[in-house]
Amino acid sequence: MAIKKKSEIKITVGLDENKIPESIVWNASDGGVSNEDTKALMMGVWDDKTSECLRIDLWTKDMLMDDMKRMFYQTFISMADGYERSTENKALADDIRNFACYFGEKSGIIEPPKK
Q1: What are phi and psi of 111, to 5 degrees?
Q2: I need a surface site. Which of 18, 42, 61, 101 has the fewest CB within 10 A?
Q3: In the chain, what are the domain boundaries?
Q4: DSSP structure string for 39-105
Q5: 82 to each of 37, 53, 64, how far by Cα in Å?
Q6: Would you call 115 helix, strand, or coil by DSSP?
Q7: Is residue 114's pLDDT more than 90?
Q8: What 3-state DSSP class applies to 14?
Q9: Which residue(s) pair with 47 in the sheet?
């Protein structure tokens, strides 16, 4: 199959003198994103040679702890959704969602269900 089009996502990280991120800016022209500031990113790419996920997790030094907790919670939910779409395994996706709710409750970002 021949590639008909290429799309680029660009991430620029501004570092301080100790190489700690101070700013993260991203662009995705096909997604309508142009020079958008963000406080954190989590990215995984699959290396089929080693059969492992290579990860980049970055956050700026002014990222708030509650926002980081919320980001992890939402990431777990989106992982469950992606897992279900790719495998059609709703039961295991629901287990991931249940863990996300457990994490959200324990980290204090969501209220436990009323009994």
Answers
A1: -85, 140
A2: 18
A3: 8-62, 64-108
A4: SEEEEEEEETTTTEEEEEEEE-TT--HHHHHHHHHHHHHHHHHHHHHHH--HHHHHHHHHHHHHHHH
A5: 25, 15, 26
A6: coil
A7: no
A8: strand
A9: 52
